């Protein structure tokens, strides 16, 4: 059985937090297992934060829509916005952040996409007209791949 | 975003009184950490036992809080929930910080 839901919220950090919390509450009510919920929430938060911070980059009036489709052991989330496209019009390459440097020079950002790649089973980006759609799939029974790969990028397929 | 601090032995223990350190509070967290740790012992233990969710912005704010302490002081992390611990491992930040399962474990190292 497929369970669909859709949530809309303003592209601000506070509204994004409430929106993400609402999506997660809905998914848990629909039976998303607790052991998967942490990964899903983090991946969703990273994608939505990217949209708020870079896609709209503080421009007022932006909106984010999250469509969720939970079917048995598979969850698909689509994050839709009308902000700027991803640089180059495609997903960034999966890079690990260089931590081999003195503490004073450690990076304070740049971790988002690495987390998104690590936590999702498939990832796909489409730009149509003024709409960006970032689609993520999670195979909840763990058949997708080994999820914990510290500092490495998981292999991705985008069907 | 509320932080409380107590001094115990040779360490300052800063406890995060919030269940999320995310993009919405990351800057505020960094600023509050600056005022909580402006002076005080060389060792600061950040007690995260009430935090159930952290994202990359929150992680960056913890890195910033560590850098604010300068080279003569250190920031250790204690009481990480499984989700918070996972964020540190996935980003390999577990190689930068010393992570303790609980505040007691962090204090035991201090006393031992």
UniProtKB/TrEMBL annotation, chain A:
Pfam families: HATPase_c_2. One of its GO terms (molecular function) is ATP binding. Gene3D superfamilies: Histidine kinase-like ATPase, C-terminal domain. It comes from the Bacteria. CDD domains: HATPase_RsbW-like. Keywords: ATP-binding, Kinase, Nucleotide-binding, Serine/threonine-protein kinase, Transferase. Residues 21-138 form the Histidine kinase/HSP90-like ATPase domain. InterPro entries: Anti-sigma-factor_SerPK (IPR050267), HATPase_C_sf (IPR036890), HATPase_dom (IPR003594). This is ATP-binding protein. The lineage of its organism: Bacteria, Pseudomonadati, Pseudomonadota, Alphaproteobacteria, Rhodobacterales.
TrEMBL record, chain B:
InterPro entries: Anti-sigma_ant (IPR003658), STAS_dom (IPR002645), STAS_dom_sf (IPR036513). SUPFAM superfamilies: SpoIIaa-like. CDD domains: STAS_anti-anti-sigma_factors (cd07043). Residues 21-110 form the STAS domain. GO terms for molecular function: anti-sigma factor antagonist activity. Signal peptide: none annotated. It holds the Pfam family STAS. It comes from the Bacteria. NCBIfam families: ant_ant_sig (TIGR00377). Belongs to the anti-sigma-factor antagonist family. This is Anti-sigma factor antagonist.
């Amino acid at each position: 059985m497929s369970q669909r839901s859709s949530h809309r919220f303003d592209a601000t950090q506070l509204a994004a937090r409430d929106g993400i919390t609402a999506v997660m509450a809905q998914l848990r009510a629909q039976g998303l297992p607790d052991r998967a919920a942490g990964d899903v929430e983090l991946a969703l938060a990273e994608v939505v934060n990217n949209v708020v911070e870079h896609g709209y980059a503080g421009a007022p009036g932006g909106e984010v829509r999250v469509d969720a489709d939970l079917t048995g052991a598979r969850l698909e989330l689509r994050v839709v916005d009308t902000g700027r496209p991803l640089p180059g019009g495609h997903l960034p390459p999966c890079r690990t952040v260089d931590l081999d440097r003195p503490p004073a020079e450690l990076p304070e950002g740049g971790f988002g996409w690495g987390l998104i790649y690590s936590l999702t089973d498939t990832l796909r980006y489409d730009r149509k007209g003024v709409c960006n759609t970032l689609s993520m799939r999670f195979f909840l029974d763990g058949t997708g791949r080994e999820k914990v790969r510290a500092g490495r990028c998981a292999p991705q397929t985008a069907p | 975003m509320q932080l409380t601090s107590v001094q115990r032995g040779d360490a300052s223990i800063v406890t995060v009184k919030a269940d999320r350190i995310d993009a919405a509070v990351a800057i505020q967290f960094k600023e509050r950490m600056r005022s909580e740790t402006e002076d005080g012992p060389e060792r600061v233990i950040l007690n995260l036992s009430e935090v159930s969710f952290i994202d990359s912005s929150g992680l960056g704010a913890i890195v910033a809080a560590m850098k604010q302490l300068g080279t003569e002081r250190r920031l250790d992390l204690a009481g990480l929930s499984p989700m918070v611990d996972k964020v540190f491992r996935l980003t390999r930040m577990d190689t930068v910080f010393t992570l303790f399962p609980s505040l007691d474990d962090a204090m035991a190292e201090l006393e031992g």
